[in-house]
Amino acid sequence: MSDLMSNKPSSIDENTSYDDAVLELQDILHQMQSTELGVDELTSRLQRASALLEFCQKRLTKTEAEVQAVLKRLGLEDVE
Fold this sequence. Notes:
Elements: H1 3-6, H2 18-34, H3 39-73
Helix pairs in contact: 2-3
């Protein structure tokens, strides 16, 4: 089990990279597709996946805002 997966479902380290979160999501998906998980384990995996998805969405939103700020500073904010 990776370090990320050993954490509580809702706790994601601030130092976690977007790529690590995506890899863990892929691992969870693979687990769900390839094995029969018990109800408790399935619930735990789904909660972790939900937390990871929220983390990724926030990271993407933050990155988009940073890109828009740079474009605005460069006078390119109308470019899409």
